[in-house]
Design brief:
Blueprint: H1 8-15, E1 21-25, H2 31-44, E2 52-56, H3 59-73, E3 80-83, H4 84-94, H5 106-118, H6 126-142, H7 157-173, H8 179-189, H9 193-202, E4 205-208, H10 216-226, E5 232-236, H11 250-254, H12 256-259, E6 264-268, E7 270-271, H13 276-286, E8 298-299, H14 300-303, E9 309-314, H15 318-334, E10 342-346, H16 353-361, E11 366-368, H17 379-392, H18 399-403, H19 423-429, H20 433-436, H21 438-455, H22 467-473, H23 482-493, H24 497-511, H25 517-534, E12 543-547, E13 556-561, H26 577-591, E14 594-602, H27 608-631, E15 638-641, E16 645-655, E17 658-665, E18 668-674, H28 676-679, E19 683-685
Parallel strand pairs: 1-5, 1-6, 2-3, 2-4, 4-5, 7-8, 9-14, 10-12, 10-13, 11-12, 13-14
Antiparallel strand pairs: 15-16, 15-19, 16-17, 17-18
Helix pairs in contact: 1-2, 2-3, 4-8, 5-6, 5-7, 8-10, 13-26, 15-16, 23-24
Length: about 700
């Protein structure tokens, strides 16, 4: 085995090859190196390479491991580095159940679901809904959840169940399997004792990477293959489990010791990536989670003198936040830091637009993993534009049908196909409601009358001021209630209503800066066209713009976490304690991408995570103060008060309700509860005290 420097825990993991093993890693702990050397040690122990299986959850990870092994130890054809899906399909194929032509490709399954969704007249975002539905399908199928009791994330349960039924019929009809089927059918196949015994003989030593992201189905397959020998080694960091929305179940890793009593537990606690300050701050954040393994978090670089740096800044608005970000990036570039060694991370893909624009204006190259879309490309503006065009007489033949139920008027589209854009014609089309219930017709008549009053033919003119459009749209100004429709659709589709209403408000603010409706429409269309033509920034040497989720497994010298605000980090959709802990894990993952410098920036209401960090730092300062007090035996120790300045500490003694600190501020003696006065921000250690 080539000589490589490994710490004691890594060596223990490499040499522990018999029986069940759980390796609890931390970010940047060298777990890939450990797994590769563990495989090599097995081979040196005369274990057949063909019986060693390493399972990962992405093709990229499997290829990286394979390449790493070959680079360090040379070619070994019989070793298996596979994704869980490749493993399962290989078993199904070997047993004669399916061939490569039976696999339903990703674009095929997405196209089928998109076709079903596009037929639903109420859907504004069919492409996004398609992706969300496919995720919900996988959650249900990978965790043995009854679809009839499942509460989907994508849309109402009735829609979810109907599309899932059609999707199941489609696969059965064409004898196709998707990635979820590979796992489901493999587990079913392995319930045959003879077949299971055959594959247990084939794979006698199994190790699984990223185990914190496993689900119930994947766990069952691994446990079945491990069998009575139980030579199963799982590796992961429960603090980096961030895919619950895809069906990952972090509690599976936490229960490994219950499933395998007496298993070897090994902790890789040394981080080889980040400077000391980054590790310290990230450790403070994740310590607030309760459902986790207790672990040390040690910075190897910190022990060797790499202090690292963390800067937290709060701004009044996003413009100030972006200006600060650009300034810091320019300063780093001036120090010789390549742009590709810097990254801007955000909670959702929609947030890419502002940093991309800021970097573009500054002439700084960028590479974005997210589409940078104008707010004028989405469905919110499409509805507004359609109403305006109808009133101006510039709309296409299907425009009226597009907004017929935006907002919902409960009108059947087929009765309005040959209807002209006028109130009398629309009322005649709605007369079918009289046969159902006269009150329905009266409600329709009232809604259609309000529509025509707001956006009827020639009500608006191109030279009118844009505020008239929003007056006609908003419920609070007697309009058609388009703002209420945005909220109700978001709730129906389980989207972020505040985010969409924020787009609506931005459009209104933009419109206010133009003299006429025509001028604003031209600006909106130019903005959308510019966004489409420029696409996403793709300079491979540029500053990386990506989401916190996509940053997992990557690292940069400088990392900027932007928009760390209330309702974004943690996200407002995190309503339960379990969901909040997942959000905190995501924040932790984002923080630990930084090697040298970490910026945490906010521009709205303070994030609860930012507040936790501030509180933790104050308490740490209080503890440091106490250590200095003891070291100096209470002589010449000073504190700083938020209002009274520097004070000489006279005493720190136990009182009736806890410890009391007394200090003299230029002849004014004051008493404070310790350590609460530090935690509340009233007291801090004086400059130079904690050298």
């Amino acid at each position: 085995m080539p000589v490589i420097s490994m710490n004691d825990a890594q060596l223990e993991a490499v040499h522990t090859i018999e029986g069940p093993v759980i390796i609890i890693s931390c970010p940047g702990s060298g777990k890939t190196t450990t797994l590769i050397h563990r495989v090599r040690f097995m081979i040196e122990c005369r274990i057949d390479p063909g019986s060693i299986l390493t399972v990962t959850f992405t093709n990229a990870a499997a290829e990286r491991m394979k390449h790493y092994y070959r680079k360090v130890f040379g070619q070994e054809e019989r070793l298996q580095f596979l994704t869980i899906h490749s493993l399962c399909f290989g078993i199904l194929r070997a047993e004669g159940l399916y061939g490569p032509g039976d696999i339903l490709k990703e674009d095929e399954r997405r196209r089928f679901v998109y076709q079903q969704v596009s037929r639903m007249a109420w859907v504004n975002d069919p492409w996004e809904l398609t992706g969300a539905l496919l995720t919900d399908f996988s959650v249900v199928r990978n965790n043995d959840i009854d679809p009839d009791t499942y509460e989907p994330e994508a849309c109402p349960a009735r829609t979810f169940r109907e599309v899932l039924r059609l999707y199941d019929e489609y696969r059965d009809r064409d004898h196709k399997i998707d990635f979820d089927d590979m796992l489901i059918q493999c587990r079913e196949l392995l319930r045959d004792p003879e077949i299971l015994a055959k594959w247990q003989r084939r794979f006698q030593y199994i190790q699984c990477d990223e185990y914190q992201d496993t689900n119930g189905l994947q766990r069952d397959i691994l446990y079945m293959l491990a069998g009575d020998k139980k030579n199963l080694c799982v590796v992961g960091d429960d603090d980096q489990s961030i895919y619950m929305f895809r069906g990952a179940r972090p509690e599976i890793m936490l229960r490994f010791e219950e499933d395998f009593p007496g298993c070897h537990v090994i902790r890789l606690s040394v981080n080889y990536r980040s400077g000391q300050a980054i590790v310290d701050r990230a450790g403070m954040v994740i310590a607030h989670n309760r459902a986790r393994y207790n672990k040390e978090f040690i910075s190897d670089r910190g022990q060797k003198g790499a202090a690292g740096a963390v800067f937290c800044q709060q701004f009044d608005g996003r413009a100030g936040e972006m200006d600060y970000m650009v300034t810091c990036i320019r300063e780093a570039m001036a120090k010789g830091v390549p742009c590709r060694e810097m990254a801007v991370l955000f909670r959702t893909g929609r947030q890419a637009q502002l940093p991309a624009a800021a970097l573009s204006r500054a002439g700084i190259p960028a590479y974005s993993t997210e589409s940078v879309r104008s707010i004028y490309e989405g469905w919110v503006f499409e509805g507004i534009r359609t109403y305006i065009k109808l009133s101006l007489g510039q709309a296409g033949p299907d425009a009226m049908l597009y907004v017929l139920n935006r907002p919902s008027r409960y009108l059947k589209e087929e009765y309005f196909r040959d209807c002209s854009y006028s109130l009398p014609s629309m009322l005649r089309a709605a007369s079918y409601l009289k046969r159902e219930a006269f009150w329905k017709y009266e409600a329709a008549r009232e809604s259609l009358t309000a529509w025509m009053k707001a956006f009827g033919p020639a009500v608006l003119r191109p030279t009118d001021e844009p505020y008239l459009v929003f007056q006609a749209l908003k419920s609070e100004t007697g309009g058609i209630g388009y703002d209420l429709y945005i909220r109700s659709y978001a709730e129906y589709r389980k989207l972020d209503a505040e985010e969409l209403l924020g787009d609506f408000a931005q459009m209104e603010a933009d419109a206010a800066s133009f003299r006429t409706i025509q001028d604003w429409l031209e600006f909106a269309e130019a903005s959308a066209a510019a966004s489409r033509s420029s696409g996403r920034p793709r300079d491979p040497q540029g500053v990386v713009l990506t989401t916190m989720h996509k940053a997992k497994g990557l690292e940069w010298r400088y990392v900027f976490l932007i928009d760390v605000n209330k309702d974004l980090v943690p996200h407002r959709n995190a309503e339960t304690a379990v969901e909040t802990e997942e959000e905190r894990r995501l924040f932790y993952v984002a923080m630990t991408r930084a090697r040298d410098v970490l910026y945490i920036l906010g521009s709205g209401k303070t994030s609860s995570f930012m507040q936790e960090m501030e509180d933790d730092l104050r308490m740490e300062e209080a503890r440091a103060f106490f250590r200095i007090w003891q070291k100096k035996k209470g002589v010449n120790v000073f504190v700083r008060h938020s209002a009274w300045g520097i004070g000489l500490v006279l005493s720190l003694k136990e009182g009736k309700r806890g410890m009391i600190l007394r200090a003299d501020f230029d002849g004014m003696v004051k008493s404070f509860p310790y350590p609460r006065a530090f935690a509340d921000g009233h007291l801090s250690a004086a400059e130079g005290l904690l050298d």
